[in-house]
Amino acid sequence: MEALFRKLQSLEEAHYGQLAGKMSTVIDLMTRLPVEIWFEENPKASDTKLEENILNIVTENTLLLLDRGFYHFHFWHQLIENKVDFITRIKKGAAIKVEQVFTESYGLRDRKIRLGSGTNKTPFIILRLVEVRSGKTWHSYLTSVLDPNVLPPYVVADLYRRRWRIEDAFNTVKRLLGLSYLWTGSINGIKLQLWATWLFYAVLVDLGDAVADELSLPFDDISLEMIYRGLYHFTTAHQKGKATDPIKYFADPQNRDLGIIKQRRKPNVKLIVAPFPDLQRGSDQFFFNNSLKAS
After folding, report:
1. What is the pTM of this model?
2. Is 265 inside a domain boundary?
3. What does UniProt give as the signal peptide span (predicted)?
4. How far is Cα 207 from Cα 75, in angstroms, rounded to an integer?
5. Do the domain assignments include residue 120?
6. Measured between alpha carbons, how far is 223 from 154 in angstroms, rounded to an integer?
7. What is the DSSP letter of 173?
8. 21, 144, 263 from 248: Cα distances, Å
9. What is the pLDDT of residue 205?
10. Is residue 136 part of a domain?
11. For residue 184, how far is the Cα from the chain centroid?
12. Stretch 89-118: mean pLDDT, rounded?
């Protein structure tokens, strides 16, 4: 909004603010909780400086979802050497050579490829290229997991779509919890606000997860924003002696007007988990089935 107000001359004479630094976070895809948070005083620091930090915290058999800021062949080689796998997007115009074809159909291409030009900057690397058609558009993904039996192609695409959870986390801490605005200009004060906000975010996620369990709903059906805003109503009810447990309070059918449960906009789509979909269509193992079966 500041840029807009400057263009409208409302802030024409106001001094430009200085960025406080750069915040980077690793989020657990399953729990949505922060695994690690880094703060760099230089707001223009490159993402490549974070690669060493990532290498220091990841363990074997970890699967990373990387954005294009980490599109570096040497970094990928280090991950693979440490037995850490990843999924990312391929850049346009990338030099590839097809080594093996797993699936090639109208809506899906799954191939093992050699990527790179063989130079010091882009040494050759063997990866898997998964391309999924949506309408007239192809969405392309790279993964170091070379075996479709370990990571089926449509699961690759589904996992990378869930990378958006990191954006949801940043949206929550910055917009909802106020981290977009700093309380102080001192570096120590900024760090205190940063850690305190992420701690509160973790508490909010735990509360939302507990409410989802209480309602026997997926976590994605719960609105963290409305839980946060509903804390005021719970506090008021608690002061009046009408509520003692926030989980029970938010799960109570009488409090559904708080909007804790999201309105479903799109129908659920079954996830195809077959390693070779064209060959396994119609089998029991084609779609993901999360129904619990009695033993």
Report:
1. 0.84
2. no
3. none
4. 36
5. yes
6. 27
7. I
8. 40, 44, 20
9. 97
10. yes
11. 29
12. 94
